Amino acid sequence: MTLLDGRKVYASLALLSALTLTVGCSSMDGNSSGLEYEPQVRKSRAVEEEVGTLSSRLLEMLKIKGKVTDLAPMASSCQVDDDDTEKYRSVRHPWSMYDVDNNALEKGMDNLAEQLPKQGWRVVKDGPDESRNRNREILAVHTKTHTQMEATWMKGLDGHEPMISFAVYSRCFRDPGHSS
């Protein structure tokens, strides 16, 4: 992992923590997970399909053409305060759009910001990130599923190819078919 990848992972984890705080249904109610909500019982495959569908809709909202990384949504352990962390899962779907110039990427971010509320997302942030380049970042929560989304327009000012990087995350859930 490069330093840039490490920073992106750290930023994504910080985002997930921050968004979890913004989407908590209620205050701590004594559930054993330590989360601000009681994780639903759901099959990992169903949540992967749900997150994949939401990611596809995000791509459509951009209304621009470019190359897209081919990574599928994937379930993994979800860190909670419970003694049996392995019974909790979360689905993550990182992907990017690239091979597009900055003018098109800017239009894509504008389209995304406009379309998110119309498509059931609550925008939590739309502004510069904490990087030196002050990349535009849109953070949103899907109001029905509580899925969280981060889209960052990396303009390539550091010599890398311009792109929009997405991270889409489900809430923690319990998969009855998953055994640790």
Automatic annotation (TrEMBL):
This is Lipoprotein. It comes from Streptomyces hygroscopicus.
